[in-house]
């Protein structure tokens, strides 16, 4: 399924129907670009100004977990009908996956990873926090995150967008990387279609260096088989978490049985708000048995309730691949 190449020696090609995505930490993949659906792709992008200095430690601590934005999209499309407006606005969704309350932690505490970090942004006058990951790209400056962490879905694009890789306990060991453009599928930006809840940010150089040169980057895969085993990462901020440290969940993906039309897959996970946009790495196709050295193939998107025991992520098919390709060439 995969082959290993260095970032410098890799090429990206869509003309043959294959995508070759290289990793600055040593990986690459070639995967077929089968159609995600019959709708013609439309990508929406926007240049943004994300000035350094806006995100003080105080603003970071006060940022609202971005899951409230995903909750609105899920509620609009939920087979079971919309949740009460107050719950949607607050993000306090009362239903949760499973029939019993969780008694055992489904996450593992992790040491910081240089290419995984926190995402901070402003939408509608409010400051939010998500998670994100540096991914391999021709411009060596690309961050993958959730669609609701770059655009309201539907609605405006974010402002004051920055990526803080390797974040731990309020510290930014690799600095803040402001976005210069944001990218998402028009199906998300115009309709908030949860199937396309993935976004990309092209970040500016910092100190004359690209993001990938400083922190590395993960290879990416698209149109992979369903039901793979994944390890996801994120910075959950809602109780019982603090958002100050990285955690992970590992599991075999299963389809969303509550809303199968979402085309999403879920893994066992108890991460809370703030983890949106964190990367899902395919396990078993690298020399490492687990960890963040695999190929990214989805992001944390949504769960059903504050006590959710399942984290769902969008299927990365040809639509997300083309959004990625558009962004990585900027």
Task: Summarize the structure in short.
The chain has 330 residues and is an alpha+beta fold. The protein is 14% helix and 28% strand.
Q: How would you describe the overall organization of this protein?
A:
With 330 residues, the protein is an alpha+beta fold. The protein has one domain: Trypsin-like serine proteases (Thrombin, subunit H), CATH 2.40.10. The chain contains six helices and 19 strands. It has helices spanning 57-62, 67-77, 85-90, 186-191, 211-215, 318-328, and strands at residues 2-3, 18-22, 28-32, 43-47, 64-65, 108-109, 116-123, 126-135, 142-145, 159-165, 177-185, 199-203, 229-234, 247-252, 254-255, 265-268, 279-282, 296-299, 310-313. The chain has a six-stranded antiparallel barrel with strand order 7-8-9-12-11-10. Strands 6-14-13-17-18 form a five-stranded antiparallel β-sheet, with no helix packed on it. It is globular, with a radius of gyration of 18 Å.
Radius of gyration: 18 Å
Oligomer: single chain
* Overall tally of domains: 1
Tell me the strand percentage band.
Answer: 25-35%
CATH topology, which one?
Answer: Thrombin, subunit H
Count helical runs: 6
Give the % helix.
10-25%
Tell me about the largest β-sheet: 6 strands, antiparallel, barrel
Structural class: alpha+beta
CATH architecture: Beta Barrel
Principal-axes geometry comes out as: globular
Provide the spatial order of strands within the biggest beta sheet. Answer: 7-8-9-12-11-10
Written as H for each helix and E for each strand, in order along the chain, the element string is EEEEHEHHEEEEEEHEHEEEEEEEH
The chain-level mean pLDDT equals: 81
CATH class: Mainly Beta
Number of strands: 19
